[in-house]
Amino acid sequence: MLRAVRAAVAAAALAASARAGAGVAESWYLSRARANAQIGNHAAAIEAYEKALAENPRSREASRGLGLSRLRNGETDRAVAEFDRHLARFPDDAELAFEQARILQWSRYAYRARDASRFLEMGLAVRDDPARRLELARLLGRDRATLDRALAEYDRLLARAPADRTLRDERLNLLLWDPRRRADALRELERREAERPDDEGARRDLARLLADDPARAGEAAGRYDALLARRPADPDLLAGRARALSRAGRRAEAREAWARAIAVRPSPEARLEYADLLAAEPATRGAARLEYEAVLRDAPRSRRARLGLARVLMARKETSGAAAAQYREVLRAAPADAEAHEGLARAYAWNGDADRALAHGELAARARARDPGATSLERTLRRGREPSLGAGARALSQGGGWGLSSLAAFGAGAAEPTPFTSSAAEAGVVARRGDGLRAEGAFVDARGEWRASTALRLRASGGWDGSRRAGRATGEVALDLRGPVRTLSVGVARAARADSFRALAGEAVDGRTAGAASETCAEVRASWDDGARRLRLAARAGEVTGPAFPATFAAAASARADLAVFRRGAWTAWAGASLDATHHARDLSGAADPLAPRLFSPPLFAAITPRLAIGREGAAGSVALEAGPALQLTSGPGGGVRLGGDARVSLARRLGDRLRLTLDGRAERVASAYGRAEVLAGAALLF
Description:
Distance between the termini: 93 Å
Structural class: alpha+beta
Helix content: 40-55%
Oligomer: single chain
Radius of gyration: 44 Å
């Protein structure tokens, strides 16, 4: 027991001795560091302070001295790092906080300007120092984000020295810099004017600030008149007076004032403000254009002048193309310029280039995501081109000796992946009847279009019909060349023949498929439309094919002319005539051949039709009605001249912004062969 007690006492004595030894070592290193720092041997002082910190990492003196010695030894970056560590442990060291703030204001530490402010605030929280507070106020005043804090520091300083003119001037400059502080700036300037009526600088600033407020711009003009009485040729005062008159709405006086100011000093800024004033009235837009062009001759990269010129040119459709050229020039220098994109969108829309209008409308809306005007323009340009999802039904009834009926239900969708491409698809099921037979199946159709420009577009479509025994695939590829009034289209198409149930769906005869005929043709279409007259020409040639008959040459041509005979509001009535002719090289009607496809295929079928049409186009939808009797000539056995005709109706209606309804119908009588009626109805949700 006695032995254990003695061991414990010895251990305690040894620990106390070690602690005493550590304290002695720290004190010795600190003493050595002080001595070396005093004689300027900073490298040795750094070594001693580091050893003192190793003995006692919580030593305030060693932490502080190490940073100062590194600074005096020229190790600025390492000194800054030491000060960061020291002040994190000892935030009440005001002297080092001020020193760290001083260093961080050097240009090499510009990226740490906010830390400089933080260390000044840290020091001021411990020791109030007016000089340091002014330093903090000036540092905060460099950034709009910290302007409020800067003004708060100036207010504290002015509370102690309200007559300090330097402080008041600096605070006023900050107020003038911040549009949110205009009322405070006005009060300060009015107080100065009352205190020192001869302070011309304050009177100038007051007039300039008042001119920014349309409600007080007239008062500003009066103040400029008083200042000009003493300095009648001062270019700044002349420009200020002209600006005040402009903002006060006194445009006639403002034009004279700007002319006088420019005569004294024709600066680009003055000329631009003068041009903006001239551009505000239709009667002086020509003069505005000359001013903008004069500025651009001297400063071709002036965005403001180019945009101003573009706005003037956009006032008339005949110069809107030149306006688009100016907007494009702005975008070459600044590809994300929202105003230029918006201007281009309007110019293209005005000139019928809906695709490029939408493309630039989207870019403007993206650049001004929070601007209701830009997003509203995009929505306007996209109207009628919204993505959609819907459903519909299609019915066909054909009588006479060519009995055929069908009923289809489908879902449909459409979208424009880019402003220059369109896509649409339908998928559903169809049931067909005729001659006591029936066929059912699923079908799908897809369409796409790429518009390389307003003059060139490529169209393609493809389909598959599971209700047919053969020839289930159909499609078309066409290239359109479009001009302001002329259009030429060249393409190749494969389509199902719907002359009869056998022709369309096909049927089994003696173990073989008869019918299911398809027609593959090269097509050329041309049209001319100036809004009052329309001419349409078309021709196609190819072959009719199917599983149980030889390929048969077929060709067709048509011509149609219409004249607008009546217009009132959105309604237009047309009168015209059409001529259609179709030729088949072989009779495929099936009079003697049990495997014939049963196509209406006389050697020549021609029809002459006088036509009347009326239509209405509006923002909420459209309606079109068309009808005409036909004198029809059929050659070959049983041929002759007979009467027929057709009628068509098309309706489209938007209900609000999210629903579109459509209805299309057609009825026709082809000689004595058959009569046909088709109806398509659909509804779609717009997104």
